[in-house]
Design a protein that fits this description.
InterPro entries: Aminotransferase_I/II_large (IPR004839), HisP_aminotrans (IPR005861), HistidinolP_aminotransfase (IPR050106), PyrdxlP-dep_Trfase (IPR015424), PyrdxlP-dep_Trfase_major (IPR015421), PyrdxlP-dep_Trfase_small (IPR015422)
Domain Aminotransferase class I/classII large: 37-357
CATH topology of the largest domain: Aspartate Aminotransferase, domain 2
Largest sheet: 7 strands, mixed
Radius of gyration: 21 Å
Pfam families: Aminotran_1_2 (PF00155)
Cofactor: pyridoxal 5'-phosphate
Number of domains: 2
Oligomer: single chain
Order of helices and strands: HHEHHEHEHEHEHEEEHHHEEHEEEH
CATH architecture of the largest domain: 3-Layer(aba) Sandwich
Helix content: 25-40%
Structural class: alpha/beta
Catalytic activity: L-histidinol phosphate + 2-oxoglutarate = 3-(imidazol-4-yl)-2-oxopropyl phosphate + L-glutamate
Shape: globular
Distance between the termini: 51 Å
CATH class of the largest domain: Alpha Beta
CATH superfamily of the largest domain: Type I PLP-dependent aspartate aminotransferase-like (Major domain)
Strand content: 5-15%
Strand order of the largest sheet: 2-8-7-6-5-3-4
Length: 369
């Protein structure tokens, strides 16, 4: 029987997020004994051992509702970042904070400026609230901030800058980003998504937290899903002007962040040593990959994150399938707006050597280049 209930026009126009196959399905399909998932930019070194110790003893708390105010996590983040508690809004991942921003501030027909190839949740949440995403093409994988400024109109309500950008891993320089923020009218929200902030090693990166006191329209997004290794628990947050935080709190669910995630986040942000270790390992392996890919004559966007967008000399689907047959799961660029590239989460040295070896073998066979 055909369903006669019509959905909202905005929902009908949205394509669902494409999820990869489960690891056990891939293993069964290709007859693999071992498989490495390097497709979703997760921290391959995992979470803090202190979190693991906590998780082993949490059964006695599962019957309780979580703290709707996220009190302890907020206190820990507030201390870590030197911001006020009422400047923080927590979500079921930082993507929920994006949804809250759209829900609280967008009226029908309002515009939101963003890169054309960036985190897709900006576009979908703006669209769902009746807003119009205004897409500005990247330039060599980097945000075109001058182009984004030119795209601002009287209808613009917010702009998004993903820094480092997902899926390219690139950043905009600190002077350029500061000049951009300074030129945005104060009635327009400037949302800087720093999901991969902790992985950045360059000095040419703008520290945005100190700018909150100067720019009341600035919102900074961070997450525990990446370097903190808590992707499965879903917790992220935004740092912003107290009045913006108040408005977002009005439209969020009361118990939007579960208690296990809250406690894990509190423990994680205090384990500075674990974060530093993961950052250093990622930096070493990123440099290794850059060197090895250079030897093979393969190009990539310069990354400041824990992943790289690589041109392997063939379609992204081709090399993705070849890697799958060898037990390595990556994200094909055809799903990210780069059909001739793949996005590879930087792995351990063993992962990266195997990855490079497969690429080298295919290049020698002349199948792709």
């Amino acid at each position: 029987m055909m369903l006669k209930i019509k959905t909202r026009t905005e929902v009908e126009s949205i394509t669902p997020y494409v999820l990869g196959k489960r690891l056990n399905e891939i293993q069964e399909e290709f007859g693999l004994k071992e498989i490495r998932k390097l497709s979703e930019n997760e921290n391959i070194y995992g979470c803090s051992v202190k979190v693991k110790n906590y998780l082993a003893n949490l059964a006695e708390q599962l019957h309780l509702y979580p703290d709707g105010s996220v009190t302890d996590s907020a206190a820990a983040v507030s201390t870590h970042l030197h911001v006020k508690r009422n400047q923080l809004v927590f979500g079921n991942g930082s993507d929920e904070v994006i949804r809250l921003i759209a829900k609280a501030y967008l009226n029908y027909g309002d515009e939101a400026v963003m890169a054309d190839k960036t985190f897709p949740r900006y576009r979908s949440n703006v669209f769902l609230e009746g807003g119009k995403p205004v897409l500005v093409p990247l330039v060599n994988g980097v945000h075109d901030l001058s182009g984004m400024l030119e795209a601002i109109t009287v209808k613009t309500k917010m702009v998004f800058v993903c820094n480092p950008n997902n899926p390219t891993g690139t950043i905009v320089g600190k002077e350029e980003l500061l000049a951009f923020i300074e030129q945005i009218p104060s009635h327009i929200l400037v949302i800087v998504d720093e999901a991969y902030y902790e992985y950045v090693t360059t000095d040419d990166y703008l520290q945005t937290i100190p700018l909150l006191s100067k720019f009341s329209n600035l919102v900074i997004l961070r997450t525990f899903s990446k370097i903190y290794g808590l992707a499965s628990l879903r917790i992220g947050y935004g740092v912003m002007n107290e009045e913006i935080a108040t408005q977002l709190t009005k439209v969020k669910d009361v118990f939007n962040v579960n208690q296990v995630a809250q406690r894990a986040a509190e423990i994680s942000i205090r384990d500075v040593a674990h974060v530093q270790t993961c950052k250093e390992k990622n930096q070493i392996e990123r440099a290794f990959l850059e060197k090895e890919l250079g030897k093979l004559g393969l190009t990539y966007f310069p990354s400041e994150a824990n992943f790289m967008m690589i041109d392997c000399g063939c379609t992204g689907d081709e090399i993705t399938n070849e890697l799958l047959r060898n037990g390595i799961v990556v994200r094909t660029g055809s799903l990210l707006g780069f059909p001739n590239k793949i996005r590879y989460t930087i792995g351990t040295r063993n992962d990266n050597q195997k990855f490079v070896s497969i690429l080298e073998q295919k290049l020698r066979q002349g199948e792709y280049k």
